[in-house]
Amino acid sequence: MQNGEKQKQILVLLGSPRKKGNSTTLAQQITKGAESAGAKVETIYLNGLNIKPCQGCYACKKKDSKGCVVDDDMQSLYPKMIASDAWVIATPVYWFNMTAQTKIFMDRCFGLFDASFTVNPLYKKKIAIAMSYGDSDPFNSGCVNALRSFQDAFRYVGAKIVGMVYGSAEEPGEIASNTELLEQAEALGKKLARS
Ligand SMILES: Cc1cc2nc3c(=O)[nH]c(=O)nc-3n(C[C@H](O)[C@H](O)[C@H](O)COP(=O)(O)O)c2cc1C
Questions:
Q1: pLDDT at 1
Q2: How far is residue 65 from each of residues 69, 70, 72, 102, 195, measured CA to CA in Å?
Q3: Across residues 100-113, what is the average pLDDT?
Q4: Is residue 5 over pLDDT 80?
């Protein structure tokens, strides 16, 4: 962080139910890099929150709406999502895509926008993605499906994906032996903090 520069606020969203899982390890490396570059990081374990799926009521799109009306833990998460400069989304591949916890979170982002997307707190938000999968190949594993979903969603709302790190691992902690990937994740954290 340069003198006089505002400290970057980064929100890390963990989409795995495993607290010490591989995607979390990657998120921790991103955090390490971001903190070393002066950013302030808060980590959210989505699986530990009460987050209901979007109910499709469109209350968030009505005139003079105050946003999502679903009364759950998203209500305390929304202000953090809005206030942060950047998000890190970490998820394993479950059945050829992101986990259900992550997808529910993504759907509930709909509540951040008004009907015309003029109210758009994701515009120019910086995003980093971290993913792990059991297969040896990002295509066969379904990792690419999730990456594509993130690309489509964040492009649609004008957010900027700063980088993606992903790799193969099965058992919790296994990804820690992939030192090259861990270095990439740490570098992504630094990039995110400086972007
Ligand atoms: C329900 C379930 C579904 C999975 N589906 C896939 C899959 O479609 N493709 C794949 O490569 N790995 C799959 N895996 C393996 C996980 O992606 C892999 O173990 C990953 O490293 C777990 O990350 P985590 O430790 O962060 O939870 C699946 C695992 C579970 C439990």
A1: 62
A2: 9, 13, 17, 25, 32
A3: 98
A4: no
Give pLDDT tens digits for 116-151: 999 999 999 999 999 999 999 999 999 999 999 999
- At the topology level, CATH places domain 9-194 in Rossmann fold (3.40.50)
Indicate if ligand 1 lies below 6 Å from the C-beta of 15. no
Q: Which residue has the CA at smallest separation from atom 20 of ligand 1?
A: 133
Q: Which atom of ligand 1 is nearest to the CA of 92?
A: 23
Distance CA(185)–CA(96), nearest Å, equals 22
Residue spans of the domains in the chain: they are 9-194
Query: Furthest-apart CA pair in the chain: how many Å?
Result: 52
Instruction: Verify whether ligand 1 is closer than 6 Å to residue 132 (CB atom).
Output: yes
